[in-house]
């Protein structure tokens, strides 16, 4: 499913920005478990954006992994390779108390 780049997410969980408070957020563990239970592996994700059009869906941003399961380093060896974002239709959005961007 392709999503317009002009569509703004309702909210996002982002652990890639060290200035945000995702891991200091009181609900980060619950949000991670919710993501895992809905087919969005939180261990590999650095950002998950949530949208609603006809149905709720998420855009999932994760690091790329090699055949051995390890995160791939980029050619400059200064960080991980990011996999292309993937869109996933969801049965539901997270519960209301998790529908926040934690660093705002």
Tell me what you see in this structure:
The protein is mainly beta. It has one domain. The chain contains 1 helix and 4 strands; from the N terminus they run E-H-E-E-E. It has one helix spanning 28-37, and strands at residues 11-14, 45-52, 56-62, 86-89. The protein has a 4-stranded antiparallel beta sheet with strand order 1-2-3-4, with no helix packed on it. A hairpin with a 3-residue loop joins strand 2 (45-52) and strand 3. The protein is globular, with a radius of gyration of 14 Å. The model has no long low-confidence stretch (mean pLDDT 83).
Write a short abstract of this structure.
The protein is mostly beta strands and 104 residues long. It contains one helix and four strands, in the order βαβββ.
Provide the number of structural domains. 1
The count of DSSP E runs of length 2 or more, i.e. the number of strands, is 4
Strand order of the largest sheet: 1-2-3-4
> Roughly what is the average pLDDT, rounded to an integer?
83
Main sheet attributes: strand count, strand direction, barrel closure: 4 strands, antiparallel
Number of helices: 1
Identify the overall geometry: globular
Structural class: mainly beta
The arrangement of helices and strands along the chain is: EHEEE
Give the C-alpha Rg. 14 Å
| Oligomeric state, counting identical vs distinct chains | single chain
Poorly predicted tracts of residues? none
């Amino acid at each position: 499913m392709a999503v317009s780049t002009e569509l703004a997410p309702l909210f996002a969980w982002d652990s890639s920005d060290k200035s945000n408070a995702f891991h200091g957020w009181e609900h980060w563990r619950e949000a991670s478990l919710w993501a895992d239970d809905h087919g969005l592996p939180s261990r590999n994700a650095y950002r998950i954006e949530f949208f609603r059009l006809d149905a709720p869906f998420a855009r999932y941003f994760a690091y790329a992994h090699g055949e051995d399961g390890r995160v791939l380093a980029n050619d400059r060896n200064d960080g991980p390779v990011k996999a292309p974002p993937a869109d996933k239709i969801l049965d539901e959005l997270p519960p209301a108390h998790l529908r926040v961007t934690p660093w705002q």
